[in-house]
Amino acid sequence: MKNLVALCGALTTVAAAAHGGGIDRSGQPIGILFEQGNYVELSYGMISPSVSGKDLAIYGGSPSGEVAGNHTLPGFALKYQFTEQLSGAVIYDHAYGADIDYTSFTGFGGTGSYMLGDTLAQVDSEGLTGLLRYKFNDNFSMHGGLRVAKASGQVRLGGQAYGPEFNPADPATYATVNGYSADLASSWGTGYVIGAAYEKPEIALRVALTYFSKISHDFDTVETLPSGATLDANTPVDTPQAVNLDVQSGIMKDTLLFGSVRWVDWSEFKIAPDQFFGPNVGSLTNLDDTITYTLGLGRKFNDNWSGSVFATWEPGTGKLVSPLAPTNGYKGLGIAAVYTRDNMKITTGVRYLWLGDADPETGTPDVARAEFRDNTAVAVGVKVGFTF
């Protein structure tokens, strides 16, 4: 089952493009802990989304243009077997990120969204996770460690959906956040990981449950007001806690069934710079918790080649979404292949995603401003590993 079990690692290579509206990218895998002996791997993935929509007809129906940019996912992982019972791993990844940019409005019949043109969300992150795993026996083990992460970002609100609007507190004036932006400088934070696993090696059964704590950041921030004035601010942000459940089992000779469930606490992810915008006004982001399901089947063809097919599903949480994350769940299909020779293992994979229809909204109460339909994404990747 050795080559066959390696198929589960293919999912890491083709990590999701649209988790949490494009925020959750790597899925935070810890599968390298279960590799045999000492092992090192390099990975590289690329996500190419096609996300576009248009203003609702009552606002003129202007097209948004492509709002989601391509992004890459370089990664590195090293596992070392200290003793028969104790092993450790170091994992470098890009767990979270966003690249949303609405084309500026150039007039009805031209390009860009009248309601949301010039809205932008850029989030970059990278992290290093150090883990230890202790095997009590052939069946039970525990794992845990620390995670250090760096993040930065920029958010800009643009378009008539953000004002001017009638201000009931002062009927003679109008309020607007159209043109507001916040630049969040790089900030480091730390968190922890803890989990346990049950295995039955004779049938390649493994059930692993892993908890990832939130990581608190404290961003030095420059807020730019619609008037052009700037304010120095502070922005506390917690990247969300998450839970991964990974399961695999041999079901017949040379055949492996595998799956996973991932929950992410996105409803606690708030960005509220403390000056003009501030927590009293609300968060620049408004995301719902997500649960992502994966189910796949792997097959060993010969001593060198194995392959798998898998499906992924993230249920939508309602069509009204933040303009900074203009998708609503997704469905996906993928294939992966593993080539093994001597101490080398090469994993390649591709996945196609159908992104859920969504209606970006703003206002209090929430009001749909645009509609995004029939959007897709493609994820491809390769991973090269060596046992030593």
Task: List the SSEs and their pairings.
Elements: H1 2-5, H2 10-13, E1 39-50, E2 53-55, E3 71-81, E4 86-93, E5 98-101, E6 120-135, E7 140-156, E8 165-166, E9 174-175, E10 181-200, E11 205-212, E12 215-224, E13 230-239, E14 242-252, E15 255-264, H3 278-281, E16 290-300, E17 305-314, E18 320-321, E19 330-341, E20 344-355, E21 359-362, E22 367-368, E23 370-372, E24 375-387
Parallel strand pairs: 18-21
Antiparallel strand pairs: 1-3, 1-24, 2-23, 3-4, 4-6, 5-6, 6-7, 7-10, 8-9, 10-11, 10-12, 11-14, 12-13, 14-15, 15-16, 16-17, 17-19, 19-20, 20-24, 21-22
Task: Characterise this structure.
It is a single chain. By secondary structure, the chain is mainly beta. It has one domain: Porin (Beta Barrel), CATH 2.40.160.60. Helix content is 3%, strand content 55%. It has helices at residues 2-5, 10-13, 278-281; strands at residues 39-50, 53-55, 71-81, 86-93, 98-101, 120-135, 140-156, 165-166, 174-175, 181-200, 205-212, 215-224, 230-239, 242-252, 255-264, 290-300, 305-314, 320-321, 330-341, 344-355, 359-362, 367-368, 370-372, 375-387. A 14-stranded antiparallel β-barrel has the order 1-3-4-6-7-10-11-14-15-16-17-19-20-24. A hairpin with a 2-residue loop joins strand 14 (242-252) and strand 15. It starts with a helix and ends with a strand.
